[in-house]
Structures are given as structure tokens and as C-alpha cells.
Amino acid sequence: MRENDLLRLPLPSDNPLEPPAEWEQLRRQCPVTTVELPSGDKATYLTRYDHVKALLSDARFVRPTAEDGAARIAPEGAGGPAADGSTTTLALPDRGEPHLKWRRQVGKYFTARRMTALRPGMVRTAESLVDDMVRGGQPADLKAGLGFPLPVYVICDILGVPAGDRDRFSHWSDAFLNVSRYSGDQTRVAYTEYAEYMSAHIAATRADPGDDLISMVIRESEEEGQGLTDDELLGTAMGLLVAGHETTANMIGKMVAMLLADRTRWERLLADPTLVRTAVDEALRFDANLGFGLRRYLTEDVEIDGEVLPSGTTVVCSMPSANRDEQVFADADDMVLSRSPNPHLTFGVGPHSCLGQSLARTELQVTLEVLLRKLPTLQLAVSVDELLRVEGLLVGGLRTVPVRW
By the 8 A CB rule, do 315 and 46 touch? Predict the structure, then answer.
């Protein structure tokens, strides 16, 4: 595109449930283009499914770090390690055999059997939160009452930390992911607090391991004779917090809003609850408010769509645009609750795909099942046009999700 046509992220849309008009045009006419990030830095923007999938699948390229000199999302360090990938705070291997070994160790926790074991506790928590929301009267904010607290409860359980500390974890997650609400200094303070808390927890877990993820990784890695360092365990816990709280909390609100925006979708699920599993994945695909996408830093020249991107380029892979690619998904702009297969890219793909995607799916399925059963008359308390987008988050979301029942 011409320089005076330079697009600035995030792209605007009519409402936070609708995709920006530019995506469809970019996929057709200019699938590899230059954009300006909120920091003012330039990056290359990919919008087609095949291009995004190919780059995310390429093990040579990883999320950029502050040390790479890559394009920054936010200026002056705002957003912390989740935004700039600082290797001083995320002490995890990001490529090669060390990365694969770490994924194998941590991935053992997120098995289908483990998710099945966690599900009853999730159901009880979700039911209790819905009951509290109902007692509080209507209209209610579904995001505050259910979407936000449920993933924190789950993550505290997985990390083996007291549920009473969930407010602290919520604050830390927000500080690590929000690139406009907190200054660089505030984010560093939040990270120091988090690191001190988790370091003490890791030490206590080493002395008296339980059934949580940290205990499992410590136990199994030591049995293999190559235990993870405290810094690696700290990074593992932070990765789970960053990837598993704010993303799922926001997705719960967006999923429910999408299903209620067209009441026939909700009615179809009430008539056939067996569609919950495919409906969750379709909500993940259909979500137009997913955030900036994933960044990759090119360490060598790469050709995409006949254009050579030189080494040193920062690429932003727009998964939500790729998920609307008409060349891959029939009726791409329709929410098809029974869509299967559904090869969406919301969790990434390849060697850096989301380790906790089975956990996220389980939480979303439980949320939907509980709401359909306990609040079948649920509806939005405002028009879709009145829903407001969360500003500044690396992951997209709605400020509130007002509902009635």
C-alpha cells in the first residue's frame, strides 16, 4: 500500500463484535502490508489464512524480545514482558530442543484426563458465580460476575495457590497485558510483586509438592535428572497466568455476547445442547475482537506472496482476519454453530501453539453449559452497538457484558 495509506493498529470497526472492513480488502488486494503499531513502530501485517498459518508454523521464528530490536507494541516498556518479551523476566527456552523439552514437560499437565478431572470443580464454581450474580439482581455484568473470576479460580487451583489471592493475580495479569493503562514503571513494580510471591510459592512447593502444575513439573523434571530452575518455573507460572486468565475471561464475555447478539443462536443451543462443543470453537473462530495478533521476528529473509521480507522484519499475524478467510471457511462471515471441522488459528499453530487450549475450551464449554441450564432466558440488556471494547489490551475484550434473564 502507499505510504499515505498506512494503516494503524488496532483497526476500528462499527462495534466490538464486527470485523474491521479493511480485513476483507486486505485479504483480496494487499495481504502483506505495512502497518503502524501503537508505539509508532512499523511492522508487516499478514491477513490471509495460508500466510498466517505458514509463518506461525515456522519453527525458525518466535515471538520477538526486547533485545531483538523488533517493532514494539507500546512505547517505553508499557505492557511489560507480555508485550515486549523481555528475556530478563521470561526465562523460558523459546526455540529448538530446549523449547520442545519444556513444552513436553508442561504439556503433560493439560491432558484430556486432567481436564475431565478439573471439570466438576469448574462446574461448581461457575454455578456458584451464576447464583451470586442472580442474587445481585438484574441487569448484571456477566463479565464481572462470571467471565472474570472463573478463570482466576481455575488458574489459582492449577498453580496450587490460595483462591483468596485471586485479586492479586487479576491485577498482575492486567498489568502484564495492558499496554495503555500502566506505565513501564508500574508494570515493573507489578512484576516484582508477582516474582516475589511466586518465588516463595515455588520454594514452598519444592519442600511440600502437591497435585498442581508446579508440583508436577518439579517432580517429573527431577525424575528425568534435569529439573527446571526456579526462574524457568517462574516463567512457566507467568505464562499460564498471562495466557490463561485475561484471554479466557474476555472470551467468556465475547462468546456470550456473540450468541445473544442474534437470539436464534442461543435458541438453537437451548434446543440442542450437544452443539456446545462446536459452538465454542465457532465462537473462537468468529471472534473479531481478538487483539493485535501474534508477532514474529524474522531472523532471515522470507518470501510471502511473492514478496521478500528481509531479516529484521517484525511481522504481525492477524489470526482473526485469517479466521474469516473465505478461501478456507465456507460462509466465513456467518456464525455456524455446527461447523466441523473448524481449523481456526485462534490458539496459534505449530511449535508455539497455545499449550493451554484444552483448558480454555473446557472453561468455555462449562460456562456455556451452566448458563444454558441455569439461565435459559438470558439476553443482552443493551444493544450490540452499546457494547464497548476494552482499550489497550493485547487481547481483545468487552468492558462489560450487561445481561438480563
Answer: yes
Average pLDDT, stretch 104-111? 87
- pTM, 2 dp: 0.91
For cell 468455555, the residue is 364
d(CA 284, CA 278): 10
Average pLDDT of the chain to the nearest whole number: 89
Q: Which amino acid is at 83?
A: A
Our CA angle for 255, 393, 38, nearest 5°, is 130
Cell of 338: 455446527
Measured distance between the N- and C-terminal CA atoms of the chain, rounded to whole angstroms: 48
d(CA 190, CA 182): 10
Rounded to whole angstroms, how far apart are CA atoms 359 and 347?
12
Q: Quick one: the chain helix, strand, coil %, rounded to 5?
A: 55, 10, 35
Residues 6+ apart with CB under 8 A from 369: 123, 273, 276
pLDDT digits over 137-146, tens only?
999 999 999 9
Question: pLDDT per residue over 199-222, tens digit each?
Answer: 999 999 999 999 899 999 888 777
Task: Tell me if 180 sits within 8 A of 74, measured CB to CB.
Answer: yes
Helix (H, G, I), strand (E, B) or coil at 308: strand
